[in-house]
Amino acid sequence: MKPIIASALFFTSLFTPIALSQAPPPCDYKTFTQSIDHFGTNNNTFQQRYSIFTEHFKPGGPILYFIGEESTYLDCANDTILYWMAEELGGMAVSLEHRYFGNSLPFGNASMEVKNVKYLTLENVMADGVAFVEWLRTSVPGAQDSKVVIASGSYGAYISTAMRQNHPSTFFAAISSAAPVRGFIRADNSSNGHNPDYTLQAFLIASFEATMKIRNAFTVMHDAIRAGNGDTVQKALNLCTSPPNNESVIAVLDQIYDTAITLTLQFDYAQSRPGRIPIAHSFDLMLNHSIASSEPLDILEYALSLFMGDDPLPCVNWTDFPSIVILLSPVIQRQTFSYITCAYNPNAVGTMGHPRVFANNPHALLSWTSVIESCKKTYNVTPLTEDVVWSRFKISPKDLDISTRIIFSNAEYDPTSGQAPPAVPLSDDVCQSRVLWTNGMGHREDLFAPEEGDKIEVVKTREKELEILKTWLALCEDD
Ligand SMILES: *[C@@H]1O[C@H](CO)[C@@H](O)[C@H](O)[C@H]1NC(C)=O
Ligand SMILES: *[C@@H]1O[C@H](CO)[C@@H](O)[C@H](O)[C@H]1NC(C)=O
Ligand SMILES: *[C@@H]1O[C@H](CO)[C@@H](O)[C@H](O)[C@H]1NC(C)=O
Ligand SMILES: *[C@@H]1O[C@H](CO)[C@@H](O)[C@H](O)[C@H]1NC(C)=O
Ligand SMILES: *[C@@H]1O[C@H](CO)[C@@H](O)[C@H](O)[C@H]1NC(C)=O
Ligand SMILES: *[C@@H]1O[C@H](CO)[C@@H](O)[C@H](O)[C@H]1NC(C)=O
Ligand SMILES: *[C@@H]1O[C@H](CO)[C@@H](O)[C@H](O)[C@H]1NC(C)=O
């Protein structure tokens, strides 16, 4: 069963466009002519989408550049923290879509064909950013000598970290929120420093009682199915069909509900975030409901319902696992992201497969053998191992220990924190990179534009990030 789960996770069929339950926020996008390959093996160009806000820009002020994430659409720069920072710093806020995502497709809808997708390399992604900045310098008056601060989150923070490390003279500083820079595949299968138990610990120390009740809910589900009472489970969870007494089926149900419950933590935001989770304070709601509930299976049902908003499922079709995964995080453009996992980001938590937190095998990691096989078969690509990623992109823990001007922002409510840099040694150099930890913060929550009702901890973290940037812009020398 393991290979089936892993391949479903990584290779859900994604040519079909993913319907967001709500249209993306409005944005006046523009496009910029970008090279398909910055290294001369294809001299054609494509149109790369960006957004720009210069109303607060003063000549010489910083370029605050948001790197598009693995999403079906580009975040408008005014929907990011950078717009607020631009106002505070006399800067311009821009965002550039990641190549092969959203509308920035070098070969249109044939972009994912093997012969076309080969230009999706981290080297090209980084060079896109350099070319974009060079073009901004010539096209926006007063920007010739502007310092550039890049920011992004999650997979995007892996890129922002690599960009600062590999192109330090272009990218003066970086905000890398929820940066998964550890815990990649290792050639010798050794333990890779990813802390899968991080997530369980976050649950336990948020509410011991709720965590035990959630864990019990899984046990109740397992026991009922194993006792041949699939019908009871079907009714309580609104499943389309009754689950048979079959360990593979139990594993699929575990994965569905474990993912949903884990995502209530990861996406615990102070605001509704369609595409991630349509309800605010999902983790708090999940914990409160678990404590109050007297029906164990109701806890599992509730978790999934939080993702449906006003659009409840007629029934949960557990035989169609890939669709449920998409439903749980529609904003991710999965096929492209799967390719990236194969090509240069061998992320041990993959696109959705966080190690299970509550299910019967809390330490289960995805089967890398099956991922490697799928990468070879689908794209003729062998995933890089951790040591290669670290040395090629200069992001090993040793490199980051001596890095400068990267803010690593880690959130308490985020499984990715189990993969993020835990610390940077103390130094007398104020320009040294810093790690910030924020209690009660969800996955890259600090990067959203400030809004009324935001968590006080997140507000404080944004203010801290702004002061760090002011200090670096004033006191640190160019590389
Ligand atoms: C961002 O700017 C766009 C125009 O580019 C505008 O339509 C939209 O309302 C703005 N969003 C916010 C949050 O201000
Ligand atoms: C790209 O252009 C360069 C310079 O004109 C040329 O040397 C190279 O052969 C071209 N590459 C391809 C693949 O056409
Ligand atoms: C690609 O796009 C074109 C033009 O929009 C469309 O006619 C064609 O059916 C699409 N092909 C696929 C495989 O989706
Ligand atoms: C790593 O584990 C896989 C099975 O998951 C095995 O095929 C491979 O040989 C192992 N590699 C080493 C170096 O032990
Ligand atoms: C259990 O379910 C799996 C997947 O649905 C199926 O392939 C397998 O044959 C089933 N096993 C039994 C014993 O029914
Ligand atoms: C959860 O319960 C606590 C304690 O009763 C309450 O203060 C909090 O507002 C509740 N959270 C939500 C999101 O309803
Ligand atoms: C569940 O999904 C399977 C696989 O996609 C499909 O064949 C089946 O018709 C679906 N069942 C329901 C009730 O939607």
UniProtKB/TrEMBL annotation:
UniProt GO molecular function: carboxypeptidase activity; dipeptidyl-peptidase activity; serine-type exopeptidase activity
Cited SUPFAM superfamilies: alpha/beta-Hydrolases
Signal peptide per UniProt: 1-21
Alphabetical keyword list: Carboxypeptidase, Glycoprotein, Hydrolase, Protease, Signal
Domain of life: Eukaryota
Gene Ontology biological process terms from the UniProt entry: proteolysis
Family listed: Belongs to the peptidase S28 family.
Protein name: Serine carboxypeptidase S28-domain-containing protein
Source organism (scientific name): Lophiotrema nucula
